[in-house]
Amino acid sequence: MDTAMRLPHVRRISFNPAMDDSRPIDHVEPDLRKPATERVAIWEDFVDIFHNPSAVFARREHGSVFVPMIIITVAVTLLYLANRGVLDPLIAAEARRAMPGGNAEVPADMQATMDQLGGIFGVIGVLVFTPIGIALTSLLVWIVGRIVGSTQTFHAAMIVATYSYIPMIVGAVVVSAHALFMDPAQLRGIYDVMLSAGRLVDPATASPFVRAVLGRVDVFIIWQTVLLAIGLAVTGRISRDRALIAGFLFWLIPTLFGLIGPLLAEMMK
Fold it and tell me: What is the pLDDT of residues 202-215, one digit of tens each?
């Protein structure tokens, strides 16, 4: 009798660390977790955002925010400088309406000083407040995203907020077009050079609250709001219904904050 025990045939299995489910996901090779990110030039983002924003947000979700932010800030600043001849008098007029006394005449020397200071602080304001505006928009996107159940990171919120500012560049170009084809003497206020419902009312007689709300019914503000909602849906992995709710909040919350200024102006009169 053969005392040697015959072992049954055992199939040889090779060990692959990447297939070991007991290991944390962070140890799996990146190319096994998700496909490599397609390399796309930054200028293509500024084109694709007009017709395929979802693709832009998807491929830039983990990318750098500083390059597009710098490009947008420089572009907005240059367009402001090109439009100063039209914008500065309108901004000064809006400031006078917000002051106690409203439409009262301002002495010539005081007006000259206001115009000079307005020009200086206007350029500084655009350079400084464009990045600040993007940061605040990022915070709004992230907070609203948490309300509607988003898993979006704050970095992704900054990416979404930054690229959503591209319509504002187009809006500045529209202001330039108004400056070329409209008579400056016929411009009553800042909304007259914008594609908003605020241009439908007379700034001398309309309530500042009405003008503030109508000013938010603007082609480029709505366009930006839509981009914010799309970006949140893509990077936050939420449904379309939740994105619609978030989009409404993106429009409503800044509108409510925009009413604080008219309210204070009314209290000071």
Answer: 887 888 888 889 99
